[in-house]
Amino acid sequence: MPQLRLLATTALFSVIIWMAADQLSSETADLTVTITLKSEDGSRVVLTPAADAPNKFIATVKGRQANITALREAGTRNVTITLADDILTQRKPGPINVPLQEQLAAIPSLFPGCTVLSVTPPILPAMLDRRVEVSLPVRVAPGNLEYTVAPGTDQTAVTAVILESIWSEIEQSDPHIVLEAEPILREQPEDVSLRLDVRLGTTVTTDVGTLSAESVTPRTVTLRATLRRRLASGTIQAVPIRFMVSPNVQKRFDVEYRDENPVATLRLDVVGPPEEIDKLVTGETKAFAVIQLTSPDPLTVGTYQFYKPEFTFPKGVQLSPDQVVPSFEIRLIPRVITPEGTLP
User: What CATH class is the domain 131-227?
Assistant: First the structure.
């Protein structure tokens, strides 16, 4: 029995000595780390690495041999460092330096059982910014279309989310959202009051250029406009002249031109809806010049009077502004009636 107790005691001391030796047996290692910065969820803070920030860092750690071996076998460690808002709220947008030893040491799961002795380079240069909400006017660019009611929107302003550093640069440069009306309205019907739901872009226009907002609210606005009926021009080569004579005048008077060879047709320049002008020019639709002859004033009977024709055109068609309408000199000569009521 004494011998058995001696063996047990010896074994126990061996285990204790081995455990102590394992605890005291530590080493250091240089481990490669890649780092991503972020702010707290829901924060308006934006963190980005500086342009000259390195892609990888060397963390020198110390720990038990077993832990160091496991870390070496794991290879490069990818870590995300979350900076609390209370650290960033007092900082103005611009460059900041993030001390890496302190930040990496605060993540126990990164190097289990090890201590972070140093990081090379020791800091991560970054840029701090914030998202801000600003009100921007919406302005409609009408384009080259013609309107009877100019285009406008029910929503005259929107809320845009922009980085604070950018807003400070453009705030005094007339920032606004432009809605280009022509591409939207070009194929819409004319002479109709239009109300169209249009999705806005996120491009912000300023006096010094354009930039993109992160978001715009509301994204859809109502565009209002009425397009003026578009006109085309054309030439009708031969419009026949017709007389509209009442039966009473036709029985009692003869029509006489001062010109011995009066024209029978007119060449007319007209404007109107493109489809109607095309039909008139090709002859599919006919137009007429009409001279109205009614019972004359007794004082003018037998004397030449000037008559201008009136024109029968399809709806929306009219003479071109520079078209000269000729006058015709016409007189009405009374017919001689015999006692028997017949013409001689």
Answer: mainly beta
